[in-house]
Task: inverse folding
């Protein structure tokens, strides 16, 4: 916050509590308390419940059954591991793909910048499910991609669909805009004169990048990474549409436990463990960057 | 020396274009297959050109009714979350108050929560207090995650605004309300519009959170998911193509208008 702005917001009147900000945040924060924080606590309570009868129709009773956690984790740790592995790989690929285009948009694109931004966001308007399904056509056995890759023997299983490769590719595609946009926002804030100054001081291009541009773009890298990794790790659509049964991620398990099997305690225990892992990551991120640049 | 620089610039440019092509590829497939007459039930490979789907979009009633449901939910979600989110954004950017850090943390958390957990936790709540699932629970669930996106987008706009403009208005004896009405709000408006557009697209396209809390209500993505098993009819591709092309057109018109406005003021 600049000094100019500070002097404007801080009014020289007598010190009293300004009610306006609290009135402004009240509806939204109230909403999030009721429909975000409170449900998370219900999730915790549900994860400790015990079944009232044999079938899910009998319902569940309040209890303190911690063993729900150990049994759920013992059974589903591979899906956990897979979710973090697949989304981790997808996030790294997204960063490698997104950085150059974000850099291009921030420093080179000039009049095409807005057009590029629109084209990056526009796919959101054509259904996520349909776009993922379209990859089935692109990656199908008789399609161009598979034929070319097969002709140079690059595919170990001779196909892409129904392999983990397809799931990672789908995740990469679907979450790439979530990496590009934050990167672009933080790169765009960099004063190009800083880069010129480094050049004037005889720094070679690689140093100009690693010592000037990269450190200044770190907030974008971190928020882009979180915005890609977190939704990707919880996604189950790509695994369902593009992968095989062996590619199921933790999202698939939570979804089927909740909706198909109606084993609410197990599903809640898995969700809560998943949330805990994410929260630890967020905590580490906040400790590094503070709450000021969160949103 | 210059040649190396030129090659470097061109590589960056070509790479960026390739990324755009990559992002557009599935959309090309979707649009292409909307003109397809599928051989079997699955509309995944090209068979024969046909305008059937385009001339008869509502042949399957559920396609159009689910589309209408999604539009209705999308508009309500957009209205509420845009107002609520913009208010928070004004508080965060325009005021220094105790609890500001907590506010941004609480806004950030839903963004950092996987959708499957947002959906599941709301379902757990609705089940435990016996709220029947349906239209209203979808609405509640979607507003919960769109608020944060609105705050992020409006924040970006407000943070870039020169605070001296408001001060100037005040110096010229504008009341706080007038300052807001004639200075702050018009400057924030593009950000608010962008936030509204984003929350509509998030709501319209949401599948994971919605499917947990939808009960028997069928939204457009839920229809697609159900149809994916037995084959998505090309009519769905038509609607998706129209949404995509419509959004492009909307942005184009908006940018032309703002260009003209700039030309008038200049």
Result:
């Amino acid at each position: 916050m600049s000094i100019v702005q500070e002097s404007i917001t801080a009014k020289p009147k007598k010190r009293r509590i300004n009610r306006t900000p609290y009135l402004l945040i009240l509806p939204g924060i109230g909403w999030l308390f009721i429909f975000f924080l409170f449900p998370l606590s219900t999730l915790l309570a549900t994860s400790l419940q015990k079944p009232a009868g044999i079938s899910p129709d009998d319902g569940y009773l309040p209890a303190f059954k911690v063993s729900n956690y150990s049994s759920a984790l013992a059974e589903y740790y591979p899906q956990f591991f897979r979710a973090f592995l697949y989304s981790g790989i997808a996030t790294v690929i997204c960063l490698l793909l997104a950085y150059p285009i974000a850099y291009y948009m921030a420093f080179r694109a000039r009049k095409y910048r807005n057009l590029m931004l629109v084209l990056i966001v526009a796919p959101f308007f054509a259904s996520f499910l349909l776009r993922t399904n379209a990859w089935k056509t692109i990656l199908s056995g008789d399609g161009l991609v598979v034929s070319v890759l097969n002709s140079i023997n690059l595919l170990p299983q001779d196909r892409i669909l129904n392999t983990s490769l397809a799931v990672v590719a789908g995740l990469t595609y679907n979450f790439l805009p979530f990496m590009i946009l934050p990167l672009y926002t933080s790169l765009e804030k960099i004063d190009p004169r800083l880069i010129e100054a480094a050049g004037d001081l005889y720094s070679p291009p690689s140093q100009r990048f690693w010592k000037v541009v990269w450190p200044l773009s770190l907030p974008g890298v971190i928020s882009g990474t979180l915005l890609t990794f977190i939704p990707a790790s919880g996604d189950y659509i790509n695994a369902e549409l593009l992968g095989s049964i062996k590619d199921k991620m933790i999202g698939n398990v939570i979804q089927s436990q909740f909706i198909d099997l109606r084993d609410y305690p197990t599903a809640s225990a898995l969700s809560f463990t998943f949330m805990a892992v994410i929260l630890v990551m967020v905590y580490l991120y906040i400790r590094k960057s503070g709450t000021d640049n969160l949103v | 020396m210059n040649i190396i620089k030129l090659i470097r610039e061109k590589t960056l440019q070509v790479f960026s274009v390739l990324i755009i092509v990559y992002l557009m590829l599935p959309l090309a497939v979707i649009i292409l297959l909307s003109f397809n007459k599928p051989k079997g039930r699955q509309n995944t490979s090209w068979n024969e050109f046909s305008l059937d789907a385009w001339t008869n979009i509502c042949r399957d009633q559920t396609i159009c009714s689910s589309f209408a449901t999604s539009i209705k939910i999308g508009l309500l979600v957009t209205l509420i979350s845009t107002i609520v989110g913009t208010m928070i954004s004004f508080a965060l950017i325009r005021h220094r108050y105790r609890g500001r850090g907590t506010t941004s943390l609480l806004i950030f958390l839903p963004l950092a929560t996987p959708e499957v957990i947002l959906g599941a936790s709301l379902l757990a709540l609705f089940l435990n207090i016996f709220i029947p699932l349906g239209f209203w629970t979808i609405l509640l669930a979607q507003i919960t995650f769109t608020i944060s996106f609105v705050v992020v987008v409006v924040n970006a706009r407000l943070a870039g605004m020169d605070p001296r403009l408001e001060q100037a208005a005040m110096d010229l004896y504008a009341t706080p309300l007038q300052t807001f009405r004639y200075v702050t709000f018009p400057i924030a408006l593009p950000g608010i519009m962008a936030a509204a557009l984003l929350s509509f697209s998030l709501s319209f396209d949401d599948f994971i959170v919605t499917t947990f809390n939808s009960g028997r209500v069928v939204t457009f993505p839920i229809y697609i998911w159900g149809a994916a098993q037995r084959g998505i009819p090309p009519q769905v591709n038509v609607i998706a193509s129209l949404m995509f092309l419509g959004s492009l057109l909307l942005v184009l018109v908006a940018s032309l208008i703002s260009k003209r406005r700039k030309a008038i003021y200049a």
Remarks:
- The mean pLDDT of chain B is 89.
